Amino acid sequence: MEKQITPRQKQLLSILYEYIQDSGYPPTFEEMRQKLDVSSNQSIKDLLEKLKSGGFIKKGESQARGITILPLGYEALGQPSLAPFVGATSAGVPIQAVSFDGEWMEMPATHYDTKIERLKANVYVLRVYGDSMINAGINDGDHVLVQEKKEFSSGDIVLAYDGDDATIKRFMSVNEPPYLYLKPENPKYKIILFRDSISMAGKVMAVLKSRQWVPVS
Amino acid sequence: MEKQITPRQKQLLSILYEYIQDSGYPPTFEEMRQKLDVSSNQSIKDLLEKLKSGGFIKKGESQARGITILPLGYEALGQPSLAPFVGATSAGVPIQAVSFDGEWMEMPATHYDTKIERLKANVYVLRVYGDSMINAGINDGDHVLVQEKKEFSSGDIVLAYDGDDATIKRFMSVNEPPYLYLKPENPKYKIILFRDSISMAGKVMAVLKSRQWVPVS
DNA sequence: ATTGTACCTGACTAAATAGTCGGGTATAAT
DNA sequence: ATTATACCCGACTATTTAGTCAGGTACAAT
C-alpha cells in the first residue's frame, strides 16, 4: 500500500520547491502559511508531518528553515531523482575500480524505487573520463547510469573490469575472430580482446550529459 | 580599487558553500562559529558584513539562515558564475523573440565582470530548442552564451532575428552565390538566404551542454 | 451512527537564532 | 606616534521561528 500524496500536500511541496529554487534556502512556517493561504501554523505543521512520513521531505526538528526535499519528493513533482554516485571510471585509460562514497546524483525516475532512499536493485552512476566512447555519445566528464547484470548481448555498452581497473566499452560477440572483445567507440583506440582478467559488471542504460560550457568554433 | 577578499573571509565563504551543498540550506551563526572555531557571534557577524559589502553574499537581516552566495562569491571560490537567462530560441523553427526574465544561469567566469550582478557588456544565455545545429555540437535543450556584436565573420554561429523570431544558425559569407546566408548544421534543414527582415544580434561564444539523461543503444 | 482521516483555526509557549554592547589585540600605513 | 583595518571576545537582548493546546469542519468508510 503506497503512501499517496494528497493535492494539498503536493501544493505545499511545490511551494517549497519554488521557494528553494529562487532563494537558495527553504521558507519558514510563516512564509508557507501565507503562500498556502491558511491562517495557522498548525496546518503547515500537519502537512509537513505528512510529507515527512510519506518520505517526500526531511525536516530538522525545531530548526529554522530546516527542510530538505528528498528524492521521493522530487519524483512526486516530476523532477529528476537520485542515484548513488560511486566514483569515476575511464573511457580511455582504465583507472582504479570504483566504490560508493555517499554522494548522490540526479537520475531518471524510472530507475528509482518508490521506497525512500532505496534504489532499484543495483543501479548506480559513474563519471566517465576519457574520449574512447565519443561515437556512442559518451564524452569526457559525462555520467553513465549502470545497471548490474550477469548476461550481456553483443553491442551492449558495458562496465568492464580488468582486475581492479574499470572501463566503459561496447561488448561484442561475433561468430568469427576475434569472437569476444571490447570495442571503444573511437577509431583512435584499439579493441580489447577478452582474457581471464576481464569481467563485466553491468550495462550502461543512460548517459547524463555533463553540464559544461564548451567553446564553439 | 577592487574589494579584496581576505583569507578569513574566504574560509567562511567556503564553509558556507559546503554547508549549503550538503544540507540544502545555509548554516546558522552558531554553526558557522563552530566550524570557524571562534568563540563569538560577533566575529561571524563582522565577517558576514564584510562578505556582504564586498558583494560576495546576500543576507536577509534578522532572518534565520538567510544567506545566499552571489555570483561574485562563487567566482571567489573558483565556482562557475551566472549570466542572465533571457529565454528560449530555436535551432529548428524560429520562435518568438527573447526577453530578460530575471533568471540566472551558470556561465564561464571569464565572461563575468567583477562588479556584482553586472555582466560584461551584453552577454547573455539562451536555451535552444530544436535540432538544426546538432553537427555544431548544439543540441535540443542546450544553452548558448551569446555575446552581442555588430560585425560578424563568415562561419560564426550567430543569434539571428527574422522579425520577431529568434534563431541560432551559422552565418556564411562567400564570394559566389548565394553570397550571404544562414546555414543550419543539420542536413535535414535548408539554408536561409539573407533578406531585409533578417538581422544578427550576437555571436555564440560557448555552449552549455544540458544536463539530461539520454538512453544509449 | 460512529470512527477515522485530512484538513483547518486562533491563541499561546518554548526554543532557536540574529543582533547588540562594550570592550580587546595585532598589524600595516601615514 | 597615531590612525585605520581586520579580526576577536563574552555576556547580554530582541526577534524570529517552530511547536503546542484545545478545539473545529467536511467527508468517506465500517
CATH architecture of the largest domain in chain A: Ribbon
Please tell me how large the radius of gyration of chain A is: 22 Å
- Which pair of protein chains has the largest interface, and what are the residue counts? A-B, 37 and 37 residues
What is the name of the CATH superfamily of the largest domain in chain A?
Answer: Umud Fragment, subunit A
Overall mean pLDDT of chain A: 76
User: What profile does the largest beta sheet of chain A have?
Assistant: 10 strands, mixed
By DSSP (H or I, 4+ residues per run), the number of helices of chain A equals 4
Stretches with pLDDT under 50, minimum 5 residues of chain A = 92-97, 110-121
In the CATH scheme, the class of the largest domain in chain A would be: Mainly Beta
Beta fraction of the residues of chain A?
A: 25-35%
Helix content of chain A: 10-25%
Q: How would you sum up the global shape of chain A?
A: elongated
Q: What is the quaternary state of this protein?
A: homodimer
GO biological process, one term (chains A, B): DNA replication
Keywords (chains A, B): Autocatalytic cleavage, DNA damage, DNA repair, DNA replication, DNA-binding, Hydrolase, Repressor, SOS response, Transcription, Transcription regulation
InterPro entries (chains A, B): LexA, LexA-like, LexA/Signal_pep-like_sf, LexA_DNA-bd_dom, LexA_repressor, Peptidase_S24_LexA, Peptidase_S24_S26A/B/C, WH-like_DNA-bd_sf
Organism (chains A, B): Candidatus Komeilibacteria bacterium RIFCSPLOWO2_02_FULL_48_11
